[in-house]
Design brief:
The protein is an alpha+beta fold and 447 residues long. Helix content is 33%, strand content 23%. The chain has 15 helices and 20 strands. It has helices spanning 12-16, 40-53, 103-112, 128-133, 171-177, 209-214, 216-222, 254-278, 283-292, 303-307, 327-340, 383-395, 410-416, 420-430, 439-445; strands at residues 20-21, 28-29, 33-35, 57-59, 75-77, 85-89, 94-98, 115-116, 150-156, 162-166, 186-193, 195-196, 199-208, 225-230, 236-245, 297-301, 315-323, 349-354, 369-377, 399-400. The longest helix has 25 residues, at 254-278.
């Protein structure tokens, strides 16, 4: 694994030559071989063959992680053929899908059946296994990360066995493997809880930094899903409130949806970000103009059309989960740090929440949490900003998102997660020879 220029475009010729890199372009790997199994049996055979050849194994998804969790110089497993819905059980309220299924595909298929996940993140390009393994989350007062909606899973372990897990079958593995970082095996299928399709009333409204932070506890308590963005170098924020409603549906019109989500949020933002990269001194002025130009909007639609939006502007991201009661102090310190520094930050800072869950290495494990995400446009300096932000987050008991950039190691994380050693002991049992290891896992989990 190595680092390449941030935001490097996807290179088909390089991939044919055996080079893999993530969506952001900041991580690349040169595996000894690529394998695209068409069945669970082919996957098991690939893992056993890797063991015979003395090679490590890592599965990749869509590459939307900014960390090197999936990079390997051994056998790279691509789940492109392990896709589709395996079973839909309306009585139990569950759907079982193959590991390589994209969230986009799952969401649309469920909607056609009059069903939906309870909560989701803000994009849906990831595979279900990649998204859950790294702890992808949205925002919610009572509904947590996507992994918290898992009711069962199966994975191929280091000895080629197919292990099925749920709350009643191999519950110790189930507790950990829902967010397993690819350290326990290769997931082949996931069973999610689903519910009848519902409507969300979305309300987006500009608000000042002081007003949104003063009302944060109230906004969190009164809304099913609340988040906001703060625009550095300004006192301006944009708030998003999503609440269940009986309707009627009132979706955005096609023209308004294209104008807001494609033209403004991707096209214009891409152009402005390029200007900011070329002329960093212009960042504060551009931030003032764009954040003041925000307009509120309301609409009502099915969940995935409210929760998710297309995100095509490539960037780097760091995100930390802090105890929910600490989020405002951490955010105010971040704002003060940016204001007294010479940093030029062109991307907004995102703040979301999640309730406590019981997943061993979930960033919300055992505590109500709030997330602060910082971003930098590709090609712009990021180390000073991320380093100083990380110091603030760590000082407030922060836990790094496993799929985002961070510098924490096993020694630190063992203190941040009360059940850390429970996970590493399970890893010792399931993968004693570290068949699924790589440099990232050696850093965050230890040898």
């Amino acid at each position: 694994m190595e680092t390449i220029p941030y935001g490097a475009p996807r290179n088909a010729a390089a991939e044919k030559a055996g080079v893999w890199h993530n969506w952001a372009g900041n991580v690349t790997a040169r595996p000894a071989r690529d394998v695209t199994p068409a069945s669970v049996e082919e996957l098991r055979a690939a893992v056993l063959q890797a063991a015979e050849d003395g090679l490590t194994v890592k599965a990749v998804g869509s590459g939307h992680s900014f960390s090197s969790a999936a990079a390997t110089d051994g056998v790279l497993i691509r789940p492109d053929l392990l896709t589709g819905i395996r079973a839909l059980d309306r009585g139990a309220g569950t759907v079982t899908v193959e590991a390589g299924t994209r969230l986009r595909t799952l969401n649309a298929a469920l909607a056609r059946e009059g069903l939906s996940l309870t909560n989701m993140g803000d994009i849906m390009e990831q595979t279900v296994s990649g998204a859950t393994s790294t702890g992808t989350h949205g925002t919610g007062r009572t509904s947590g990360a996507i992994a918290a909606q898992i009711r069962g899973l199966e994975l191929v372990t280091a000895d080629g066995s197919l292990l099925r897990c749920s709350e009643t079958e191999n519950p110790d593995v189930f507790a950990a493997a829902r967010i397993g970082l690819g350290a326990l095996g290769v997931i082949t299928a996931l069973t999610f809880a689903v519910e009848p399709l519902f409507l969300l009333a979305a309300r987006e409204e500009p608000m000042t930094f002081d007003k949104v932070t003063a009302a944060f506890d109230e906004l969190h308590a009164e809304n099913d899903h609340f988040e906001f963005y703060w625009f550095p170098h300004t006192d301006n924020c944009n708030t998003l409130r999503n609440n269940r409603t009986l309707g009627p549906p009132a979706p955005l019109g096609r023209l308004r949806e294209w104008f807001d989500n494609e033209f403004l949020s991707n096209g214009v933002f891409q152009a402005l970000s390029s200007v900011c990269r070329a002329v960093p001194a212009a960042v504060p002025a551009i931030a003032q103009v764009t954040s003041r130009g925000l307009a509120g909007r309301t609409y009502t639609d099915i969940p995935y059309k409210v929760f998710t939006t297309p995100r095509r502007v490539r960037m780097l991201e760091m995100e930390y989960a802090v105890p929910r009661e600490a989020v405002l102090d951490a955010l105010r310190e971040l704002k003060a740090m940016v204001e007294r520094s010479d940093l030029r930050v062109s991307f907004p800072v995102e703040v979301r929440t999640a309730p406590a869950d019981d997943i061993t290495l979930s960033t919300a494990s055992g505590r109500d949490s709030a997330y602060i995400a910082v971003h930098v446009y590709r090609g712009m300096p990021y180390q000073q900003y991320f380093t100083q932000a990380e110091r603030i987050f760590v000082a407030h008991g922060g836990r790094p998102h496993w799929g985002k950039i961070h510098t924490r190691d096993a020694e630190h994380l063992a203190g941040a997660y009360p059940r850390f050693h429970e996970f590493t002991a399970l890893r010792d049992r399931l993968d004693p020879d570290r068949r699924f290891s790589n440099p990232y896992l050696r850093r965050v989990l230890g040898e």
